[in-house]
């Protein structure tokens, strides 16, 4: 089941309703370059309705179209940004967010889930979380569900509205997914980053309106006792949208960005579980796997270390000496600037012991690289090599054709300019170390990933695209 996050509302007139929801979509096709240039987590209108522009309520802050259909009230539905298609201005049908780390993933935000089965599940969860589930004071989280149909975590909260019954409107942030542990762990984020944020904004508008009405009653000299003591909503007052309630025009674009970010993190957590599944192999079983730092972040950090270091230890098996089959390691230069997949370009002499060994067994070669600077914050004010990333790459060696040696030298010398004169020595030639997997130690366990990184995750990681917030993980 796809993970989904929704904003729910208990409308005074229409009861529990789904206002806005964001879900993860895995695309089968690759996005075009133009799409990829759009910054991640930036919400963009995707499709637009082709219907002509509906009438606009003039005195509304949102200036969003008000639909005439009786089922849609401003409180029950999201007001998405207006889009100018060149001929007409219409409300965007959906918002989408691209995932910068994975072009096949999109987070689509709509007024209700697109798939029928999800629509039913969300609708049921909405009614249940806003009416049936008990939460003391109506503010707080509830969790329900089962392993088969997925779990729902709903955080209910009030927003103050001077025009609403009881001067409060009831909302809920709901997440639907199969991973119960993640749901529980992310509720503080939903509360701190989203619910409290919305409440603060609503309070500012509420205070302003209260002061305004107090000022009006003083200037009109209306006695205080004439105010409605039950804070009832006047029947002729239309229910306000969330946009008007908070005084934020692009509130749904902001909600979309936060929902997408939460879904993105949740998918990372789920991928970590997949990596744990590799314990079927007896080799993996023995290796401790730290789950606090994701394997993707570890791969990005590894690629950055590879990119920065420029030299490491090549590991080969001895051949043709009295120490046959013993492991042999020696410092070796490499460059990763010639490919974008993290494979290493080596420039080695046939006279070297490592080269002779690797010619005897080119399919089983290792390369150990240690961080040469600090990537993790100091531990108790000290920074030592053992708390910094280091790893061994496993792979095979392929000779670079002579016809490509000029090209190879031009990028190898970017990393090692001192190697340029070596090309006049006839025993030197280029080899490509093709990475097939790696074992990674990110530093101290507990905060850093320690374990295997599959080759495809290493190859796909971008050394310079590590998210800033992940560096502290
Ligand atoms: Zn309504």
UniProtKB/TrEMBL annotation:
SUPFAM superfamilies on file: FMN-binding split barrel (SSF50475)
Secretion signal span: 1-15
Origin: domain of life: Eukaryota
InterPro entries: CREG_beta-barrel (IPR055343), FLCN/SMCR8_DENN (IPR037521), Folliculin (IPR021713), Folliculin/SMCR8_longin (IPR037520), Split_barrel_FMN-bd (IPR012349)
Pfam family, one: CREG_beta-barrel
Keyword field: Signal
Record-given protein name: UDENN FLCN/SMCR8-type domain-containing protein
């Amino acid at each position: 089941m796809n993970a989904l996050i929704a904003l729910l509302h208990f409308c005074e007139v229409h009861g529990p309703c789904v206002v806005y929801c964001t879900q993860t979509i895995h695309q089968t096709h690759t996005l075009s370059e133009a799409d990829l240039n759009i910054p991640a987590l930036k919400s963009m209108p995707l499709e637009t309705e082709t219907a002509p522009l509906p009438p606009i309520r003039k005195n509304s802050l949102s200036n969003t179209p008000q639909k005439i259909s009786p089922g849609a009230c401003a409180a029950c539905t999201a007001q998405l940004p207006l889009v100018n298609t060149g001929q007409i201005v219409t409300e965007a049908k959906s918002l989408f967010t691209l995932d910068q780390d994975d072009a096949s993933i999109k987070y689509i935000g709509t007024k209700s889930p697109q798939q029928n089965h999800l629509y039913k599940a969300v609708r049921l969860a909405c009614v249940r979380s806003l009416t049936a589930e008990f939460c003391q004071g109506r503010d707080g989280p509830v969790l329900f569900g089962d392993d088969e149909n997925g779990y729902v975590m709903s955080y209910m909260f009030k927003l103050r509205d001077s025009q609403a019954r009881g001067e409060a409107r009831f909302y809920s942030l709901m997440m639907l997914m199969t991973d119960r542990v993640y749901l529980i762990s992310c509720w503080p984020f939903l509360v701190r980053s989203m619910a409290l944020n919305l409440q603060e904004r609503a309070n500012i508008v509420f205070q302003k309106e209260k002061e305004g009405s107090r000022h009006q009653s003083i200037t009109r000299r209306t006695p205080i006792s004439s105010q409605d003591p039950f804070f009832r909503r006047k029947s002729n007052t239309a229910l306000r949208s969330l946009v008007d309630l908070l005084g934020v025009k692009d509130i749904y674009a902001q909600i979309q960005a936060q929902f997408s970010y939460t879904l993105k993190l949740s998918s990372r957590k789920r991928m970590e579980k997949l990596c744990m599944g590799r314990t079927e192999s007896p080799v993996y079983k023995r290796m401790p796997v730290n789950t606090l730092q994701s394997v993707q972040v570890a791969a990005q950090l590894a690629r950055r270390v590879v990119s920065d270091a420029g030299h490491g230890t090549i590991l080969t098996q001895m051949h043709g000496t009295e120490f046959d089959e013993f492991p042999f390691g020696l410092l070796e230069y490499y460059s990763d600037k010639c490919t974008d997949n993290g494979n290493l370009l080596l420039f080695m002499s046939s006279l070297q012991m490592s080269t002779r060994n690797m010619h005897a067994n080119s399919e089983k070669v290792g390369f150990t690289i240690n961080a040469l600077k600090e990537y993790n914050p100091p531990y108790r004010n000290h920074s030592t090599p053992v708390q910094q990333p280091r790893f061994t790459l496993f792979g095979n060696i392929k000779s670079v054709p002579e016809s490509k040696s000029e090209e190879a030298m031009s990028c190898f010398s970017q990393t090692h300019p001192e190697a340029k004169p070596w090309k006049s020595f006839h025993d030197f030639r280029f080899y490509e170390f093709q990475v097939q997997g790696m074992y990674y130690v990110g530093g101290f366990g507990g905060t850093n990933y320690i374990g295997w990184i599959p080759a495809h995750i290493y190859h796909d990681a971008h050394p310079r695209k590590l998210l800033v917030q992940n560096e502290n993980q």
